[in-house]
Design a protein that fits this description.
The complex is a heterodimer of chains A (642) and B (381). Chain A has 642 residues and is mainly α. Chain A has 25 helices and 9 strands. Helices cover 68% and strands 4% of the residues of chain A. The relative contact order of chain B is 0.13. Classes of the chains: A mainly alpha (642), B alpha+beta (381).
Chain lengths: 642, 381
């Protein structure tokens, strides 16, 4: 038994470490080298990214998932992995087999009025209570949807009804889908290579006829008609295609990527020859459409080799981002955090009754937190390298970084006080923040380019990192305080001995230390933010909502420290103040963005507003619990009896 | 009684109460921005001593909550008093002293900024040269003698004086100005609408235009547009009544005693002993998108007095600091052919830098000593 308890932590570590290693090992591609296609670089949102990122971010916006499940599995059968269409495979269908793509249920509609308005009641498939529809089912409602969407988009965001918001989301998803469909070949093309050949054949006579017509001379009407009919298809494509897929032919102008339509039309000026990329895409299109794996693979590798001559950096970027998309580090870290939290919670509860088991669980949790932290750090650094930026550039990455900072603090606490609390806090904070990050990612590309004011690595690395660490520390203090109150009121654990004092006292010391840390980082971070504002707008402090939010955290931490130094609060009061710090920080992090005003506003988010209010509600309840008279606390009853 | 007061003023309890009030104030002031706009919320909540409540639209002003100045001053008093009472020189207190000195410096610096700093705008088209910037919220009535070919003679009357109405005399002006009407904010239209009245003037252009007075503008990106009617009076009689307005893009013109004059209500001008010349404005975007990557203005500074002549690049997060002023890239013309630089004169701009270093070091020292002490204690245990 003893040996088992001793081995348990190592077993846990081995289990999860193996999983991570398996995930990170390179995978074999399918017979059709679709992964190779997914790695190819394109330009979208102002940055080079692989086709796979285009696919994944589009799917996230349309379906709120990164891939398309192909079968229905009841959610209680969690061991059964349903077959999935991976993001790149879905994109290939959209590009080259649009008929099949049109029959995939990817459009989520869950507003009952919208479903009945569009007369979709008998259509779609249901999954976990949500209804998904195919493009084919929605195709003849397109006019109605876009007409309604126009009305809705004229209304200010904050004043839209849920119906209108859903409708707009649906309309945007449909538009994005249609743009993707004509990103490589014009819509309804069945043999792209043939279409291009026709265009090139019609080009000389057509151009000659056009010139003659413009000069007022006699011209070949049939040739002009044939040519302009074809040119029009490419013109529509040039206006509608989504990512820029054709690299610049002029190596000096690295940014001049074009979409396929624009590239084809540019041959009108250049005198005829197609960009090599277009010919490769045409080969891929035809081969994929006819399921000819060998030809598709040769076109993909041919294009990649061609790219390597002038665009080696872009190819490398596509490859590394594709890998990052595949391994889903943050998802795996989330799972480990959750398991570690449960182990640490178990350790805390068994502290008195089963000390040996408790210690074994505590060590397991600690090992797993260590592993999760390594994985989390790996993901964080990988993202930084991909972006060439400090860790925090938007709300999404702030969630990742707050989780990372909180986990780091938790690890330090656990090293100092070996009682499981540090691990519990790290596990909870890591799990919750990564969950928040996951939901924030549903908006689309999380590595978007930074607007002019933000385009400065110096201030992102100093001000933003400091403020975000301040958030993380305040949350850690608040979470420790929660543990104090829950454990104190419902269990006798706080009275148990830990080192020289009891656990309650140790917790109070931890919270105090973390609040000091939080004060340091939030003050310095806030003032640095002011200095940045002075550098870019000519004013140190403008009472902008986000600035005020940061100031609130500083004031609150200062208040906690002064209240403690002045003897106005003891351990229990300190804990209640620290929990209120959670509310203050949540307001500063998310709440101010919801006001929809100021220089830092990123748009109104009502779904998040509900969660914020729910969070604040729970915190207030816990503070009320903390205000219970001491004799009602199980931990302190014990002390008094002794 | 006095000892009791002394105890209260020096107590940490007061600190905590004031910090709590500050927390409420900042939170309230942030929410208030949704309805009041940033500018008014700033003035009502932070740049005043009390937040007032006017019951039911009456003219009463009942103070209901301490505002920024009150809390700030009380915190300062409390801080000094507490230090006076508790401070003993010694290693342990250096951190605390540094932290609070930094905070005091920050607060005073901001107070000085409030009082001493001025902001103005400098708008230049491509190839244009200017030796002044213009205030965006303060106006002046410029009376310009344009008779000489090489130099104009300008008499500027601040808008504050115009608002008092009545007659204005200046030694170097051969006529006096009688302000008949002055609206601090106004609207001018070509056709009448509800609330508008027709402008009645006897000279210059303006007759046939309709106007009305507007309340003070509170929205952040908009500003007051004043208008008024002035009569120019000489000992021999009246030269007529003129419309002056910030809306007018060209000045009113008239002659008197063989000299040519212009009359313009314009942003207050700050003249510099040097000129700025816009060589190029650039609005860079990320490839394939409309996301702005950078805004930059390449500008030539020329200073005849010193013979200085050089080119500088002003871009986002990289202002030009020159001659006590700071020039920021603030805006641009929609056709990308002109730039707007914000010009800030703020003698106390460095205080936050010192404060940040002081407080940061102070906190490190203070918590560092705590931490070391704690670690030692644990080792002993």
């Amino acid at each position: 038994m003893k040996a088992l308890l001793k081995a348990l932590p190592w077993l846990f570590l081995a289990l999860f470490a193996t999983e991570i290693i398996v995930v990170m090992l390179p995978k074999k591609d399918s017979a059709m080298h679709t992964a190779d296609f997914g790695r190819l670089p394109v330009l979208l949102n102002g940055r080079i990214q692989p086709f796979d990122s285009v696919a994944r971010n589009s799917l996230l916006q349309i379906r709120s998932t990164g891939d398309v499940p192909l079968e229905e599995v009841p959610s209680w059968k969690f061991w059964h992995h349903p077959a999935k269409l991976k993001s790149t495979d879905w994109l290939l269908e959209v590009f080259f087999k649009p008929d099949i793509a049109d029959s995939r249920p990817i459009f989520l509609i869950h507003h009952p009025d919208l479903i009945s308005e569009l007369k979709l009641g008998d259509k779609g498939v249901e999954k976990s209570g949500l209804r998904y529809y195919t493009f084919a089912e929605l195709e003849n409602r397109l006019a109605e949807i876009s007409a309604q969407a126009r009305t809705a988009s004229a209304i200010e965001d904050a004043n839209r009804t849920t119906y209108q918001k859903q409708l707009l989301k649906l309309a945007n998803g449909l538009l994005l889908y249609q743009r993707l469909k004509s990103s490589i070949q014009p819509e309804d093309t069945h043999n792209f290579a043939e279409l291009l050949a026709k265009f090139q054949a019609a080009l000389p006579a057509g151009l000659a006829a056009l010139r003659a017509q413009q000069a007022g001379q006699q011209f070949d009407e049939a040739a002009l008609k044939r040519f302009s009919g074809l040119a029009q298809q490419f013109d529509e494509q040039a206006n509608f295609a989504y990512p820029l897929t054709v690299p610049p032919t002029d190596p000096a102008n690295k940014d001049a990527w074009l979409n396929v339509g624009a590239s084809v039309l540019s041959t009108l000026r250049g005198g005829g020859s197609l960009a090599p990329a277009v010919s490769f895409f045409a080969r891929m299109a035809t081969a994929y459409g006819h399921d000819e794996a060998a030809e598709f693979n040769s076109a993909v590798s041919g294009y990649k080799n061609w790219l390597l001559t002038g665009f080696a950096r872009e190819v490398a970027k596509g490859r590394s981002e594709f890998y990052f998309n595949q391994i889903k580090v943050f998802l795996h870290a989330t799972i480990i955090y959750l398991v570690a939290f449960m182990l640490a919670a178990g350790a805390l509860l068994l502290f008195g009754p089963a000390p040996q088991l408790s210690e074994s669980l505590r060590r397991s949790a600690f090992f797993l937190i260590g592993l999760a932290f390594v994985v989390h750090t790996f993901g964080l650094i990988y993202r930084m390298v991909l972006e060439g930026r400090p860790p925090v550039t938007n709300l999404y990455s702030s969630a990742i970084f707050i989780g990372w900072g909180a986990c780091g603090l938790g690890l330090v606490l656990e090293r100092v006080y070996k009682i499981g609390l540090g691990s519990a806090v790290a596990g909870l904070a890591g799990f919750v923040t990564l969950l928040i990050a996951h939901n924030l990612a549903l908006g689309g590309d999380t590595m978007e380019m930074l607007r002019a004011v933000l385009d400065t690595n110096f201030w992102l690395a100093t001000h933003v990192v400091c403020v975000t660490l301040g958030y993380a520390a305040t949350f850690v203090a608040g979470t420790l305080a929660l543990a104090y109150i829950v454990l104190g009121v419902f269990t006798p654990v706080l009275a148990t001995k830990a080192g020289t004092a009891n656990l309650g006292k140790a917790l109070a010391n931890m919270v105090y230390a973390i609040v000091c840390f939080a004060t340091l980082f939030s003050f310095v971070g806030t003032v640095l933010g002011g200095i940045w504002a002075d550098q870019s707008w000519g004013r140190f402090w403008g009472w902008d909502p986000k600035e005020n939010g940061a100031l609130l955290i500083v004031i609150w931490n200062a208040l906690i420290l002064h209240a403690r130094w002045g003897g106005l609060v003891r351990d229990r009061g300190l804990m209640n103040l620290a929990i209120f710090g959670n509310i203050v920080t949540a307001f500063s992090w998310f709440g101010v963005n919801m006001l929809g005003i100021g220089l830092h506003s990123y748009g109104f988010m009502d779904a998040a507003f509900k969660w914020l209010m729910l969070f604040n509600g729970t915190q207030v309840c816990l503070i009320l619990l903390g205000l219970l008279p001491v004799r009602r606390w199980r931990s302190f009853q014990l002390v008094q009896k002794v | 009684m006095l000892t009791k007061l002394y105890k209260i003023v020096t107590s940490l309890r007061l600190t905590v109460v004031l910090l709590a009030l500050g927390l409420v104030l900042v939170f309230w002031g942030t929410l208030a921005q949704v309805n009041l706009g940033l500018y008014r919320a700033q003035n009502d909540f932070f740049r005043s001593f009390f937040i007032y409540w006017a019951p039911g639209g009456s003219s009463w002003r009942i103070p209901i909550f301490p505002a920024g100045y009150a809390i700030g001053w009380l915190l300062l008093i409390n801080l000094f008093a507490a230090h006076f009472r508790y401070y003993q020189p010694g290693k342990k207190k250096y951190g605390i002293a540094m932290i609070h000195l930094g905070v005091v410096l920050l607060l005073f610096g901001q107070l000085l900024t409030d009082v001493l700093s001025t902001e103005s705008m400098l708008h230049m088209r491509h190839g244009e040269t200017k030796n002044y910037s213009e205030a965006s919220s303060q106006y002046e009535l410029a009376v310009i003698d344009t008779t000489e070919a090489t130099t104009d003679k300008v008499v500027a009357i601040p808008a504050g004086r115009l608002a008092k109405l009545g007659e204005i005399n200046q030694a170097d002006m051969p006529f006096s100005i009688r302000v008949q009407t002055y609206y601090k904010n106004s609207a001018l239209v070509e056709k009448t609408g509800p609330g508008y009245s027709e402008i009645a003037v006897t000279a210059g252009f303006g007759a046939g235009i309709w106007w009305r007075e507007l309340p003070h503008e509170t929205v952040m990106d908009r500003r007051d547009m004043p208008s008024g009617i002035v009569e120019l009076v000489t000992p021999q009689g009246s030269l007529g009544t003129f419309l002056i307005s910030a809306y007018l893009t060209r000045p009113q013109e008239f002659t008197h005693n063989g000299r040519r004059y212009q009359l313009a209500l314009r942003g207050e001008r700050f003249y510099k002993p040097f000129t700025l010349h816009l060589l190029e404005f650039k609005h860079d975007k990320y490839p394939g998108t409309d996301i702005p990557k950078n805004f930059s203005s390449r500008v030539r500074i020329e200073r005849p007095a010193t013979g200085e002549k050089r080119e500088v690049l002003i871009y986002m997060n990289n202002p030009l600091r020159y001659d006590g002023d700071t020039y920021y890239q603030a805006s641009f013309d929609p056709d990308n052919q002109g730039t707007v630089l914000q010009v800030v004169h703020n003698p106390s701009w460095l205080t936050p830098y010192f404060s940040c270093v002081l407080v940061g070091l102070g906190l490190l020292v203070q918590f560092g000593t705590h931490l070391v002490g704690f670690a030692k204690k644990r080792k002993v245990a």
